[in-house]
Amino acid sequence: MTITVKRSTNSIGMGTGLNIKTDGKKVDRIYHEEEKEIELESPVIELSVSRGLSRSNTLKVADEEYIIIRSTPWRTLSLVILFVLLAVIMLLVDTLFHQVIGFLGLLLYALVAEYSFEQFRLEKAGFEAHTEF
Q1: Where are the membrane-spanning stretches (predicted)?
Q2: Is the pLDDT confidence value at 116 over 90?
């Protein structure tokens, strides 16, 4: 019994792999635009992916299903916000002390954003989507 998993995330984070988990246990890693077949231990499992603090939704999957991993809009938006605020802090704040405080605040924002929201979305694909790849 196997499922097929395809990573189709945007270019943000394309150099790092995602941990594929079945029933909470890491079973494999998948990289940008890669497609893998995962062996199932039981007829129905809970599938998720993670990387560091980033995580995805959990999806119940069965034998021979095709799953696509996508980035959520929040992932891109949170990085845009981070870089805009970083540029504002570095350009508009005069003292080094306040720049460091601002940078540390942005670092905290990045960690909270990474942990608080699902960064990746698992979706079951129909036959039409399977043949596109």
Answers
A1: 76-93
A2: no
